[in-house]
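Fold sample X.
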Amino acid sequence: MEFKYILTGLRKCRGFSQEELASRVFVTRQAVSRWENGETIPKIDTLKRIADVFDVPISRLMGFEDDKLCLFRQSEFVFSYRVAGILVRDGNVLLQKPDNTEEYALPGGHVIFGETAKDALIRRWREELCAEITVGELKWVEENLFMWGDKPCQQISWDYIVKLKDTDENMISDGALSATYKEGDSAAVRFYWVALDAVRDISVYPSSAAELLKKLDEPLQHIVYYEDMK
């Protein structure tokens, strides 16, 4: 992920305006704006101050951790190790969907090498939803084989029950934009509350989600999904 997206997401999650961030790292608001528009990047001393403000390593600011994602693209196939969270509220489940598709999925992302699945899930919800969560029981283990662009992908996904630490669960509004994107980005991801009874009427992964969401009180489920590769 590019620096401009990482910085914008961190700033939004902390609730800082561009002016507030600028004052904390001793630059102008215009400088922050140029960073977030991808026109320039800060010098190393300023990067250190930004990292201190957000309590993250410089490697994360610069997107170097992307090189450690458990997402391996080979010449003929892709392997993906993902985690996702199942959050149900008042008969609705929280799902994510990019603006350029009609396919929904559970909110989450790829694990970074050396990271536990639960830590990865906490990090992803913090980065994208600015939400602090507690991770509960592992409910679904997915084995998926599908086309990732022009290559077959084999994906393992662990799906956990999650709860928001904040008592105000209305903090995630319907249609909320991921903090790692800006309005107008073609592949921007948004989050939607979907009625459990309506999940069967949309394209969602895992494809058996509509039935599985009715059985969250049952033991761990193992899901195997093979997409038609023809």
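Fold sample Y, listed below.
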Amino acid sequence: MKERYLIFRAQAKSLANLLLKKLTCLKDVKIVLGFQNVKFISQSFADEILNILLVLTLKKQFSF
């Protein structure tokens, strides 16, 4: 995901789907999210991505 403005909940869901694909295909993988070129993250995007990561962590499918 190479967008400079992360605004919508749908963008967070797309990122979550990408993460799930990577995590389920590969074993013992470490994923680092880099936001160095992002100019703006909305409250909606941040809330959605944090909720998704929380659910994944609580399900203990993956640990971040």
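Sample Y note: The longest strand covers residues 5-6.
Also: The chain is about 50% helix and 5% strand.
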